[in-house]
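As a representative case, we now present a protein record of this kind.
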Amino acid sequence: MAKTELIDSHISVKQCTQAEQEENELLPSNEQYVWLQITVKRMHPEHKIKPFKIPLKHPLIDPRVTPVCLITKDPQREYKDLLESHKIKFIPRVVGITKLKGKFKSYEARRMLLKENGMFLADERVIPLLPGLLGKKWFDAKKQPIPVCLTRKDLKGELERAIESTYMHQNRGTCTSVRIGLLSHAPEKVLDNIKISLPAIVNNIKGNWDNIQSLHIKTNSSISLPIWTCELGDATGGRWDGMVQSKDTPEKSKHGFGGTCAGSASQQG
């Protein structure tokens, strides 16, 4: 196959297009996200709170029709004024930590805040506080606040890039899912997003392509459709590469020493 037909030298354009067409046939009328599911061979040693920013050609959020909420340090008024001074009009709501602890303390108030906004950004300095303040629903809804730096000179550009990107949340398991499209997107748009996002996703996985077992595409409620999988043998790049003991390697005894004791015994004699 010609190299120009491959994405990041591994996955063919045909594989991605076929999987996306099958996905649309499964759920043709539902507005849902399209996810790229990455399965790795070796688990990540740690969970990271801060997600990896992944570029997209066709953003998933349009702030003109989907409200974006910004969570900030106190005082809240200072950051509202900051947005106004930078002529930022695409973030209609700013919520400070004190208001989050007060006005939005109740479960119902937080549920409504979650429902009314399609995306949440947060000052990177308050990110460690948010899991305890927001609760489990935010994470179940896949609306974890995205960290942004509110001290940048180009604040407008910082916030625009945050909204236009997608994110990979690293966990300790072997499977990670990344939003790469909308079910309402044409297959060509989803394919464009895969082309742009896949190299960045791979670069943020420890071991890169050597550690990737398979890639699937799915929606929120559909089955996963495979678009690429590594070889299942123990050859270079295969599923069990480096995990299977070579036949030429001496087996270890129960004490952890390789080989036999025959040589040592003959010397003692």
User: Anything to note?
Assistant: The chain is about 30% helix and 20% strand. The radius of gyration is 24 Å.
